[in-house]
Specification:
By secondary structure, the chain is α+β, with helices and mostly antiparallel strands. The protein contains 5 helices and 13 strands.
Length: about 350
């Protein structure tokens, strides 16, 4: 509490200092030289620096408390993110539910994943647009951008490069450390050229794409040996997700309605749904099956599971051709909504069935 009070006092002092030199919030260059009752730029800088450190301290305290609450079995959410607790899970095609032959999702293997935050929802068109505007005003550059059927629907037609630059912008806008850096260590802000030769700073606390292992752990919702993100059945219906139903082709599709989801196949494609239109999974995450596919960080290798590390795997290290996407979509059949299924596309590809959601380290 004392740290919070100090932080609030610092904020008031800082606001007073800015007012004293006639500068506006967000504009720390005062008009003219400081007078006898004014603070110098250096003084303002020092105070802001102290405030920033106090904010970081408060964020750490919040993270510590969240971890303790989670250890006590509480369901912790931070804004629109959920804390996925540290722990092991069995990754890969679930063999005990029958005909689950997914050659590139074998063998099943146990993976330890450190705690992380995950967006409850796919990034919406509204969230994308807000960060996008902020980012382009700060010098970020994107490729062809994005589309969204409505403000609360998923952003789609986002390529992988734009997605990671957008993650950096969201981090900077919200006061976190960006994760994606260029080869020279600078923040990755230029996705217009569809190239990325840098890496991910996993220790940074900013927004980023989940790894494939993080995504699958999150999708399984804390429940083992299930085909879909829910824990009470190994079947799927339109009541649970937005996908292309073919109950005559798949025994595990018991939907009474076939084809596109009847509630959303209007107004032209894409037939996305407002995020969160269906029940969440055990971690409180929505649309982990269907609506739009979601980009992951990892390069795609069909044989990765035969050699992936047991702790926090992040995909093949060497540059390959395709990046992983997960979770099915309004346009794809039920088989692609399974938690273990792995798809891949070129990172420059963009489709109206493909979006993403963010993870964030603690
Ligand atoms: Ca999805």
């Amino acid at each position: 509490m004392q740290a919070t009070r100090q932080w609030m006092m610092a904020m008031v002092m800082t606001a007073n200092m800015i007012a004293a030199v006639g500068a506006r919030a967000g504009d720390l260059t005062p008009p003219g030289a400081p007078g006898s009752t004014m603070h110098t730029l250096d003084e303002i800088y020092q105070q802001l620096l102290a405030t920033r450190l106090q904010v970081a301290d408060t964020q750490q305290q919040v993270a510590d408390l969240e971890a303790r609450l989670n250890a006590d079995g509480k369901h912790v959410t931070v804004g629109d993110m959920v804390l996925i607790p540290a722990g092991s899970f069995v990754m890969g095609a679930t063999t005990n539910v029958g005909h689950e032959t997914i050659s590139d999702a074998a063998p099943q293997h146990t993976v330890m994943v450190s705690a992380f935050y995950m967006d409850k929802y796919e990034v919406t068109s509204n969230l994308w647009a807000g960060v996008y505007t902020w980012a382009t005003n700060k010098g970020y550059a994107f490729g062809t951008g994005w589309c969204g059927k409505a403000a609360t629907h998923s952003a789609h037609s986002v390529d992988w490069y734009d997605a990671i630059a957008w993650c950096n912008a969201r981090s900077q806008r919200d006061g976190f450390t960006p994760c994606y850096t260029n080869a020279n260590g600078t923040v990755y802000t230029n996705a217009a050229g569809n190239s990325f030769a840098g890496g991910c700073n996993w220790a940074a606390n900013g927004y980023r794409l989940p790894t494939e292992a993080e995504w699958e752990k999150a999708a399984r919702g804390g429940v083992a040996n299930r085909r879909f993100p829910w824990d009470d059945a190994n079947t799927i219906q339109h009541a649970r997700a937005n996908y292309y139903a073919q109950p005559s082709s798949y025994t595990y599709d018991t939907s009474p309605t076939t084809g596109y989801h009847p509630s959303y196949n209007t107004g032209g494609t894409p037939y996305t749904s407002p995020v969160g239109s269906f029940a969440p999974n055990g971690y409180g995450l929505y649309d982990m099956a269907g609506n739009v596919f979601e980009w992951c960080w990892d390069w795609y290798s069909s044989t990765y599971y035969t050699s992936s590390p047991g702790t926090d795997p992040a995909g093949p290290a060497s540059p390959l051709t395709y990046r992983v996407l997960r979770g099915g979509s309004w346009y794809f059949a039920e088989a692609y909504a399974r938690v273990a299924i792995r798809l891949n596309l070129h990172p420059g590809d963009e489709y109206d069935y493909l979006g993403f959601r963010c993870a964030r380290g603690l």
